[in-house]
């Protein structure tokens, strides 16, 4: 089935080994994101790497999130997702379009980028490892 953008909010619990709650907020929920910043310990920002029409909007949303005072020291993982699709843009292309080097050099928080495919699981082990590290969880 064709994936559809996330609308609304979903909660998922992970064991890393302690229980961590992940709150997923779709892009259209951007106006209410700030109401969740104070309870955020780590941030995963997911970008659709197969949709070049959304790159500029995603970049603006990322810059808005990074400039929020409550997130000034929260570690950030930018995930370029849907790399399983034939039309995806590579990590190099996405970093260039987002000007990630400039963003990372100006941001107050640590930023990491990864490629993933939620559909086939590519990169998900690295995401969990990043979460453990960002949350200071033992491996």
From TrEMBL:
Gene3D superfamilies: P-loop containing nucleotide triphosphate hydrolases. It comes from Prunella himalayana. The gene is Arl16. GTP binds at residues 27, 81-84. This is ARL16 protein. PROSITE patterns: ARF. One of its GO terms (molecular function) is GTPase activity. PANTHER family: ADP-RIBOSYLATION FACTOR-LIKE PROTEIN 16. Keywords: GTP-binding, Nucleotide-binding.
């Amino acid at each position: 089935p064709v994936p559809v953008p996330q609308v609304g909010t979903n909660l998922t619990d992970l064991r890393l080994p302690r229980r961590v709650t992940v709150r997923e907020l779709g892009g259209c929920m951007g106006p209410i994101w700030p109401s969740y910043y104070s309870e955020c310990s780590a941030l995963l920002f997911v970008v659709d790497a197969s949709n070049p029409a959304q790159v500029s909007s995603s970049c603006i949303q990322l810059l808005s999130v990074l400039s929020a005072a409550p997130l000034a020291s929260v570690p950030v993982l930018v995930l370029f997702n849907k790399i399983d699709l034939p039309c995806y843009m590579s990590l190099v292309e996405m970093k260039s379009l987002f000007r990630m080097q400039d963003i990372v050099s100006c941001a107050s928080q640590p930023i990491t980028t990864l490629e993933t495919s939620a559909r086939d699981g590519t990169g998900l082990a690295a995401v969990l490892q990043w979460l453990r590290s960002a949350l200071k969880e033992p491996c």
